[in-house]
Structures are given as C-alpha cells and as structure tokens.
Amino acid sequence: MVRKVLFAICLWTVAVSASAAEPMMVRQLDYLAGQWDCSGTAFASPMAPEHATMGTAKLGWILDGKWLSFAYVEKKTTANPMPYSVSGFMGTDAHDNTLVIGGVDSMGGYSTGGSAGWDGMNLTFTGPWHMADGMVNGRDMFTKKGDRQMTHTALVEMDGKWVNLAEETCTRK
Question: Which of 56, 81, 122, 124 suits 32 as a labelling partner, its CA being 20 to 30 A distant?
C-alpha cells in the first residue's frame, strides 16, 4: 500500500512539474494572438509565378489556453487567382519543452514543426512540409517589427539551400 501511495505521489509530482513548465513556454505565443492584415510576395516556384499577396491571419487561444489556433486566408485578386490558405495550431511539447506547430493547407498539404522559442525578435519553426509532389523541410519564420507589426517568411530546403517561398508583412488590427 505504501508503494502505491509513493508511486501516486511521484506521478502527481511529475504531472505538476510538466504542467508548470508548459504555460511559461506556450505564453511565448501570446504576441501572435489576434487578427493581422498581411501583404507581401509569393516568389516564383514550380507551383506559381511570382505574385503579390494580401490576406488575413486570425490567431486565438483555445482549449483552456493550451493551443493557439490559426487561420491565414489570402484574398483572390487578378495577380493571385488561386489564393492560398492554411489552418492549424501552435502549442507546446511538454516533454521536450519546445513550441510546436501543425497545419493543413488549401493545396492538400500538411506540415509540422518545432521551435526552441523566440531568439531575440525571431521565432522559427522547422519541420517537414508534405506537399503534392513530396516532402521537403520547411521553415516558418516570424520576426517582430514592433508591437503591431511582424513579418512572416516561408522557406523550403532545396539541394541543401534554404529558398524563400513567400514573405508577408503583417499589421495587427
């Protein structure tokens, strides 16, 4: 009986320790929460020629503040007849004490990634992006430009080099 009680206390201690570390890490995502108007460039790729983009990003806390849901939707324009959209979640991996991201997009792809957190003004998620023509390593980079402005850069690794797919400047509404 004493063993069971000690075991239960040990499990409870581990659970409390893990949950105490998690909120501090996930709070790093607070800056991203809100609604953002974005404009930028999708650079030439096998998927499309270079073109201007405009879109809206909405990020909000769900599930008792454990996950930050996101949705980015581009506006259809003459320059962008097939606008891109992506939805997903950001949160933490309590085991590794890292930030995580997972998303699905309007082209049928999905991606996951991890980050050690903010490095100065930069937050970078790196991981596999699964697209119609296969899987590549991808990066989502967020750079703070102040309280109300940031840039988002999407990169993929090709032949050992990081290639810029898109870059947007986003302003908080």
Answer: 81
Q: Residue 112 is which amino acid?
A: T
What are the structure tokens assigned to 61, written together? Answer: 């806390």
Q: Is 124 helix (H, G, I), strand (E, B) or coil?
A: strand
H helix runs in the chain, sequence order: 2-26
Q: What is the pTM of this model?
A: 0.84
| Residue 112 CB partners (closer than 8 Å, separation 6+) | 100, 101, 102, 127, 128
Inter-residue contact 125 to 114 (CB < 8 Å)? yes
Q: Rounded to an integer, what distance in angstroms lies between the CA atom of residue 70 and that of residue 29?
A: 11
Q: What is the C-alpha to C-alpha distance for residues 97 and 102, in angstroms, rounded to an integer?
A: 16
In tens, the pLDDT along 57-106 reads: 999 999 999 999 999 999 999 999 999 999 999 999 988 999 999 999 99
